[in-house]
Amino acid sequence: MFSGFNKTVIGGSHTDSGKICQDYSEYYVCENYSAAVVADGHGSRKHFRSDIGSQLAVKVTLSTLSEFLSDMDEFEKSFRDDPSRVIKKIQKHIISYWNKAIAGHFIGVPITDKEKEPFTDEQFRAIKHESMYGTTLIACVMCKNFSFGIQIGDGSLVTVNNYAVAQMPIADDESCPANLTASMCNTNAIDLFNHFYTFDELMAVFVSTDGLFTSFGSREDFQDYHTILVGLLDDRDAFMNAVSKNLVKRTNHGTRDDISLAGVYSQNLIAANQEAIMSQIELNRKMTEIRKAEHKAKIEKQKAKAAMMRNRSDSAPEPTQKYEMESI
Question: Mean pLDDT, the chain, as a whole number?
Answer without folding.
Answer: 91
